[in-house]
Specification:
The complex is a heterodimer of chains A (126) and B (527). By secondary structure, chain A is of the alpha/beta class. Helix content of chain A is 37%, strand content 29%. Chain A has a five-stranded mixed sheet. Chain B is 32% helix and 27% strand. In chain B, the strands form five sheets. In chain B, strands 11-12-24-21-17-18 form a six-stranded antiparallel sheet. Chain B has a six-stranded antiparallel sheet with strand order 13-14-15-16-20-19. The radius of gyration of chain B is 40 Å and the shape is elongated. Classes of the chains: A alpha/beta (126), B alpha+beta (527).
């Protein structure tokens, strides 16, 4: 039917940081997945969230909507919100054209994003 | 068991046979004590008619008193016949019930298919009344919830055609009807006195009503109407099983009517919005050519919030304002928000000199509303000065307009900005562009560039392809460019589904051709 690569959104915890990893082509079909991820954030109360978009090859305006909702929700709760790249050119274009990139903290990679965040609150150290 | 000798006399019987046929004592003639069907069968077995092959085809059966009995013969060596009589009354009742159940299931399946094949509410009501009249009652009425003072009623008498009428009546006059239309469970038919039925529910020439069933037609959340079944006086009244069955049928009919109603409402709303959305056919305004094309998604779920408008200058020497945008999301919500944005922009027209201010106010208006969606748009102010058209272009998070120069060069307007409706602070940069005669500025929504298709079926039309296509449009009329872009995108899509696609072209007209020399033109343009 479709040649479209499968998209997925996964969540995990890295210390006190919540990582939402998205992969593939993101459009309206993934909308609910992000909504669920943001709900999860509210439940787990991490200090910050990294949205890892390195594996995203295409994103449309409904993804942008999910992103903006997540950002607003984190801002309102006083949590950090970082987007991790490297970003695919089409994703970069979407964020630039819409002027959203100016309102985001974008890190070059997941590691970079995690390094820049105060991860640890519970005594585990690495 | 009953043993009968070759002379037709009973020689043995067991206890069950004795209780079944008390007179069949040993020594009695079978013909005198057994029912006719058994005697006949016995004789046929003893003296087969020429050409018949005695054999176990259909099991013999018949009534003995008020019991139903199956008889299985066994020919014994000495020429006597042992008849095994099996009381199958219960079995038969069960079989009859099963047959009825199968018939009803088949009817329900057929009803569902017939009902769901139509998304037309009137047709659904017709089918409901007709199916019910032909299979469940002598006459049936399908009643939709009232609109104002009238009840839409479809009446059908068995074997007749459904007739629609608008009845001015209070449903609460009919016991159970008001409740059914409000979605309460049906009252048992025995509670309804047929004599109390008002005149309008009885079809003309129907005669006295014997029994009435009123059952709700349950819809999705809201009742879709009610179904009234009538049987004539003197006929069999509805039993409990039939009432339950009527409810099952009503559930299916109600679901179909409800779907049809929703569809009709949605279509009406979408059409209204689309009509509202479609701008007037664009043409030359104050010496600037405008052309617009809009292809709404054929897919209901994908109708989105693409919009565009041209607001002619209110006074000489002022600029006309073109707005083109795209609300995030699909469906009616998006279309409604698009309407809101268009209204807001219209209200802000006096400020159209200052795109930043206009966008800032629009952004605030959207943030303060309960909508949680955002939109991207382009503002283009266009003003004719001599042969040229001067543009001021501002993108608010929207793909920048493309400029088609006379030599086929395609430039991207150097404007950018933040989308509106999502972030409290927005920025944007306006760019001034001048169009020489024959040059055009193309505004489009991402329905064009994100149209998926092509030879591989899943490749986006993309900005590059659009630029190449536009490069071939140098010097074309605004309308021609719109048609060309739409045609290419449509070809690219093939038969695949697509989102809304909108294109607006602003051109500096080539009004002063050499052929137009008449001594009065302001200047000449030789292209």
């Amino acid at each position: 039917m479709s040649w479209r690569s499968r998209a997925h959104v996964r969540v995990r915890e890295e210390g006190s940081v919540f990582v939402v990893e998205a992969v593939g082509e993101l459009d309206i079909d993934e909308r609910d997945l992000f909504a669920a991820a943001w709900d999860e954030v509210d439940e787990r109360c991490p200090s910050a969230t990294v949205l890892d978009l390195a594996g995203v090859t295409f994103a449309d305006s409904s993804f942008l909507d999910s992103l903006l909702r997540g950002r607003a929700q984190h801002l309102a709760a006083g949590r950090g919100f970082v987007v991790a790249g490297p970003l695919h050119p089409s994703v970069r274009l979407l964020l630039d054209v819409t002027g959203v990139s100016r309102h985001l903290t974008v890190a070059g990679s997941l590691d970079e994003a995690l390094l820049g965040l105060p991860r640890d609150t519970g005594g585990t150290s690495d | 068991m009953l043993v009968v000798d070759p002379h037709g006399r009973i020689t043995q019987r067991n206890e069950p046979a004795a209780s079944l046929l008390p007179e069949a004592e040993p020594g009695a003639a079978l013909a005198r004590v057994a029912p006719q069907w058994l005697t006949t069968a016995h004789r046929a077995l003893r003296f087969p008619a020429p050409g018949t092959v005695p054999g176990p085809d259909e099991p013999l059966c018949g009534a003995v008193g008020d019991q139903h009995v199956e008889a299985h013969p066994m020919i014994r060596e000495e020429g006597s016949i042992a008849w095994w009589l099996i009381d199958d009354t219960d079995h038969r009742v069960a079989r009859e019930a099963l047959r009825l159940e199968r018939e009803r299931t088949a009817f329900l399946t057929q009803a569902s298919n017939t009902l769901l094949s139509s998304l037309n509410l009137a047709r659904c009501m017709d089918v409901t009344a007709q199916l019910a009249a032909d299979s469940l009652a002598d006459a049936a009425l399908a009643i939709a919830p009232s609109r104002g003072r009238h009840l839409p009623v479809v009446t059908c008498v068995r074997g007749g055609a459904p007739v629609l009428s608008q009845v001015q009546a209070d449903p609460d006059e009919v016991p159970g009807l008001g409740e059914a239309l409000r979605g309460f469970p049906p009252v048992p038919s025995r509670w309804i006195d047929p004599a109390s039925a008002p005149e309008w529910i009885v079809p003309e020439g129907f005669g006295p009503v014997g029994s009435v069933v009123i059952t709700p037609l349950p819809g999705h959340g809201v009742p879709a109407g009610a179904l009234i079944l009538l049987r004539r006086d003197g006929g069999v009244p509805f039993d409990e099983g039939e009432e339950v069955f009527a409810r099952l049928f009503a559930a299916r009919a109600g679901a179909a009517m409800s779907a049809a109603r929703l569809y009709a409402e949605q279509t009406a709303i979408s059409e209204t919005l689309m009509r509202e959305l479609l701008p007037p056919a664009l043409h030359q305004v104050d010496g600037v050519d405008f052309a617009g094309g809009y292809r709404a998604s054929a897919d209901h779920q994908r109708i989105g919030g693409d919009f565009y408008d041209v607001h002619p200058a209110s006074a000489e020497g002022e600029a006309s304002l073109v707005t083109l945008g795209d609300v995030c999301g699909k469906g009616l919500d998006a279309a409604v928000l698009a309407g809101k944005i268009r209204n807001t922009l219209h209200a802000l027209l006096p400020l159209s000199d200052d795109h930043q201010r206009m966008l800032g106010l629009l952004n605030t208006a959207l943030l303060n509303s309960h909508h949680t969606r955002f939109a991207t748009l382009v503002l283009a102010s266009a003003e004719r000065r001599a042969n040229e058209v001067h543009l001021r272009l501002t993108s608010a998070g929207h793909p920048p307009p493309l400029i088609v120069r006379a030599d086929g060069t395609v430039e991207e307007a150097d404007t950018s900005g933040t989308l509106v409706g999502a972030l409290p602070e927005i920025q944007s940069r306006t760019v001034a562009v001048t169009l020489a005669p024959g040059e055009s500025c193309v505004l489009y929504t991402d329905g064009i560039t994100e149209a998926k298709g092509g030879p591989m079926g899943d490749v986006q039309f993309g900005q590059e392809r659009l630029r190449r296509a536009l490069s071939a449009c140098a010097g074309m009329l605004a309308e021609g460019i719109v048609e060309h872009v739409q045609m290419l995108a449509t070809q690219w899509l093939g038969t695949r589904r697509h989102d809304d696609m909108a294109v607006v072209v602003i051109s500096a007209p080539r009004t002063h051709h050499l052929t137009a020399v008449d001594g009065h033109t302001r200047g000449r343009f030789t292209g």
